[in-house]
Hints:
By secondary structure, the protein is α+β, with helices and mostly antiparallel strands. Among the domains are: 232-379, Butyryl-CoA Dehydrogenase, subunit A, domain 3; 400-439, Rubrerythrin, domain 2. 46% of the residues lie in helices and 15% in strands. A four-stranded mixed sheet has the order 1-4-5-8, with helices on one face. Strand 11 (406-409) and strand 12 (415-417) form a beta hairpin. The longest helix has 37 residues, at 231-267. Flavin-adenine dinucleotide binds next to strand 1, strand 3 and helix 11.
Amino acid sequence: xxxxxxxxxxxxxxxxxxxxxxxxxxxxxxxxxxxxxxxxxxxxxxxxxxxxxxxxxxxxxxxxxxxxxxxxxxxxxxxxxxxxxxxxxxxxxxxxxxxxxxxxxxxxxxxxxxxxxxxxxxxxxxxxxxxxxxxxxxxxxxxxxxxxxxxxxxxxxxxxxxxxxxxxxxxxxxxxxxxxxxxxxxxxxxxxxxxxxxxxxxxxxxxxxxxxxxxxxxxxxxxxxxxxxxxxxxxxxxxxxxxxxxxxxxxxxxxxxxxxxxxxxxxxxxxxxxxxxxxxxxxxxxxxxxxxxxxxxxxxxxxxxxxxxxxxxxxxxxxxxxxxxxxxxxxxxxxxxxxxxxxxxxxxxxxxxxxxxxxxxxxxxxxxxxxxxxxxxxxxxxxxxxxxxxxxxxxxxxxxxxxxxxxxxxxxxxxxxxxxxxxxxxxxxxxxxxxxxxx
Length: 439
Ligand SMILES: Cc1cc2nc3c(=O)[nH]c(=O)nc-3n(C[C@H](O)[C@H](O)[C@H](O)COP(=O)(O)OP(=O)(O)OC[C@H]3O[C@@H](n4cnc5c(N)ncnc54)[C@H](O)[C@@H]3O)c2cc1C
């Protein structure tokens, strides 16, 4: 069964998120963007309203939201402010390794603490010298009796300065690459942690992004999310479940830009007509809507796959790179429709353009998503069509006529009909051995 409808509960959740986004996020977004600061008070309200850590599984007492619910909520938040949406969603990114790990004791303890005291999680694979190449991380994890000791620097950590716990990926031996990496849930109150100044960014300035230094930080063995050797797979498994949500950021931001452009095009006049009277503008609007719709479908499909317990990796990558690139194009075109006013800080599209640019970079750049998808296509994709050299087309007008034996030249595709292959191909001159026999 295929169903593109949200359930009544999901619609109610969307409406609640939409209200929160319009009443709590939208009115403060520009101010915090201007002062380059994370609005902690809004994050706290989002936590109280149940929009943060809502994915704590039901068996641990949580709301057990799936990725479809996360996508629905995130689209609304990002429509108001992609930066604040990042801050709100980031706790799910930080918590995902805990959800996926096999450390039951830690899950029980952390989820109950999260439900009682509303703690925030962050996620750290990236470092000053690597981002895409996760296997190349250098933060060291050394085993010391009953604990692990972490030493190194994590960089670009969203909410790193305002989180309570961080999922930190570190390696026993940088030379071991994938097979040296483990993951550790670090209590940010531990001794030896230094949080840097917020990194000044072009957009998403309502989110906190910092470098974090770990200097022989003791992590009890009870806080291991993945033993060295299992951490790389845990990081990839996390991204497969969080990348659809980057698609949802893109949908929300693009939808808003489209709506602002639509409204402006109806009101602004040029050459005696509203802008919306010009076909060039109408077509821009149509393409914006097409991209918003396509992005949402891909995002929901990836989220749905994850919720069905299917591997979402490829759908997630497709959704992430399609939607984030489409959002950039939509917001750019919205700015074009709004002309000079679109370029000013007095209208919202300029901020959206700065904010959506990040979507093509974090959680795996567009290039990395293309590597994932092309790698899968070239190694695992199962084609429906026969290989080209086996493509035999019959000359029969109607299927009841007797079948002829056909021979196909593997080189140029020439089809020869008859009991024997020709001595050489009359088109490309390759010898008889180039011919394969059809059924
Ligand atoms: C605001 C912000 C927030 C972030 N939040 C977090 C966070 O919370 N946690 C976290 O761990 N990280 C976070 N990141 C880091 C982010 O995931 C990385 O920036 C991203 O993965 C790219 O890594 P990089 O910046 O090191 O670029 P690099 O890996 O150095 O890549 C530079 C360029 O080269 C391309 N490239 C690299 N390798 C290949 C290849 N094999 N083939 C083709 N092209 C390639 C990339 O696509 C990119 O265009 C954040 C980053 C930003 C900017």
